[in-house]
Amino acid sequence: MFYRFRLLFLTLACLFPFTPLLTAGSSPPPITFRVHRQVDQNAERAIPVQLSNPPEMIYAHRSSEISEKDISYVHVYQGPEAPGAKIQLDIHGRLVLETLTNANKGQYLIIFIDGKPLAAEPITKKITDGVLAVDNLTPEMVAVFKKHFAKKAP
Fold first, then answer.
1. How far is it, in rounded angstroms, from Cα 45 to Cα 35?
2. Half-sphere exposure of 86 (CA within 13 A, CB side)
3. pLDDT tens, 39-84?
4. What does pTM read for this prediction?
5. Contact (Cβ atoms closer than 8 angstroms) between residue 84 and residue 136
6. Are 83 and 145 in contact (CB under 8 A)?
7. Which helix (H) or strand (E) holds 67?
């Protein structure tokens, strides 16, 4: 048993100098998608977000709960007034969204694209299907979703 541990330790020690090579070539995502939960304005390093309808200032938690890594696919559609998108999350994102919406009813989920607030959706019920819906997208945001997030549905 001791020899197996020693062999494992030596193997890991030999690989340690090469870890920068293992991560070389990885690049940041072309665009970021982040979902934050609403917090009290007195929370440490809260991010202020100005809502337009209703006109109100809310604050987002500094750390995101969901990111672009949690997206399975995005379906962009034409709504009655403007385009919208349904964002299907993978299993991790679905579980985080379910937990988040169950614990924060009455608060907002704030969606950021490249650090800019895109939407603030009130949490009215627990979301169990892993789908976030965003309405009233601008043509520019539709292009962003189609270019960076539109993946084939399973």
1. 16
2. 10
3. 999 988 899 999 887 789 999 999 999 999 999 999 999 989 899 9
4. 0.75
5. yes
6. no
7. strand 66-67
Q: Which two tokens stand for residue 95?
A: 């579980």
Helix (H), strand (E) at residue 19: helix 19-23
Alpha carbons 53 and 36: distance in angstroms, whole number? 19
Identify whether the C-beta of residue 65 lies closer than 8 Å to the C-beta of residue 79. Answer: no
Sequence-ordered list of residues with C-beta below 8 angstroms from that of 97, at least 6 positions apart, any chain: 35, 65, 66, 89, 127, 130, 132
Q: Which amino acid is at 4?
A: R
Contact assessment for residue 114 and residue 31, using Cβ atoms and an 8 Å cutoff: yes
* Segment 75-112, tens digit of pLDDT: 999 989 899 999 999 999 999 999 999 999 999 999 99
How far apart are the C-alpha atoms of 148 and 118, rounded to whole Å? 15
